[in-house]
Structures are given as structure tokens and as C-alpha cells.
Amino acid sequence: MDLQTRLMDDQKRAMKDGDKVRISVIRMLRTDLKNATISKGEDLDESEILDILSRYARKRAEAAKEFEEGGRREMAEKELAEAEIVKTYLPAALDEEEVRVIVDEVVDGLGGVTGMKHMGAVMKEVMAKTAGRAEGGIVSALVKARLSQ
């Protein structure tokens, strides 16, 4: 079952269960996916869908942090709950060692890649291979470390 079908089925289930938070999150996700499809002019592939979901989860986590810093604990908890719902649709995150292996494979596969001038090319390949399963900041740090050797 593809992710969009799963979202639609989960939305129906949440409506039957009366889970207002889950309904709201799934509606927002489906709206974001539909808008991206319209902007692109064709159906999204799985990596594009995962990218949108990851971005949404990251925004919720950042909003929770801001609310927490502002002393709005109840709003922070709401944002974190929404982020957790989105994470159920994302593949399991790669740990740092798994990302390091992918970075090494990409650098070795590109051949002759040395120095920071190749950072963009390496990042593009690694991010494509990790497809929403690794945070960009972690990938960037590992790529910088490898290219600085």
C-alpha cells in the first residue's frame, strides 16, 4: 500500500475513532502532498513524499521547541504529539554509523572527490540515498568530516 492510500485509510479510521489531533495532522499532510503534486504537475514519487513528511515533522519539532522556550508547555506538547503522528509514516531513521557508511560509499563511488569543493555533489547523492531517513545536519557534518580528511 502506498503512503497516500495509507494516509487516506488512516484518516477514515481516525474520523471513526474521533481522534481530532490525528485527523488534523493527516488532513494537513494530505493537503501538503496535494499542493506539491499540483505544483509539480505530476504525481510525486516516494522520496518526494517522504521529504514533505520529514519537513512537516521537523517544523512541528521546531515549533515545540519555540513554545517550550516561550513558556507555553501545553502548545509544545501539542506540537510534539503532531510530530509523533507524522513520524509513524516515516521510515526508521538511520543511525550515525549507517549514514557514515553511505557517505563513504558515495565518496568512494564518485572517485577523485576530495576537499570541500565537492561538498554539494556528495550531499546531493547522500541525501538521495537516505531519502528522509537522516537529518540534513547530521549528513552535512559527516560529509564535511569525510571530505576534510
List keywords for this structure.
149 residues, mainly alpha, Hypothetical Protein Yqey, Chain: A, domain1, Arc Repressor Mutant, subunit A
Would you mind describing this structure in some detail?
This protein is mostly helical and 149 residues long. It has two domains: 3-87, Hypothetical Protein Yqey, Chain: A, domain1 (Orthogonal Bundle); 96-147, Arc Repressor Mutant, subunit A, CATH 1.10.10. It has seven helices and no strands. Helix 2 crosses helix 4. The longest helix has 24 residues, at 46-69. It is globular, with a radius of gyration of 18 Å. The mean pLDDT is 89.
Q: Which consecutive residue ranges, at least 5 long each, have pLDDT under 50?
A: none
Distance between the termini: 43 Å
> How many individual domains?
2
The helix count comes to 7
Named at the architecture level, the CATH assignment of the largest domain is Orthogonal Bundle
Going by helix content, strand content and strand pairing, the class is mainly alpha
CATH superfamily of the largest domain: Uncharacterised protein YqeY/AIM41, N-terminal domain
What is the third-level CATH name, the topology of the largest domain?
Answer: Hypothetical Protein Yqey, Chain: A, domain1
**CA-based gyration radius:** 18 Å
Shape: globular
User: What is the number of strand segments?
Assistant: 0
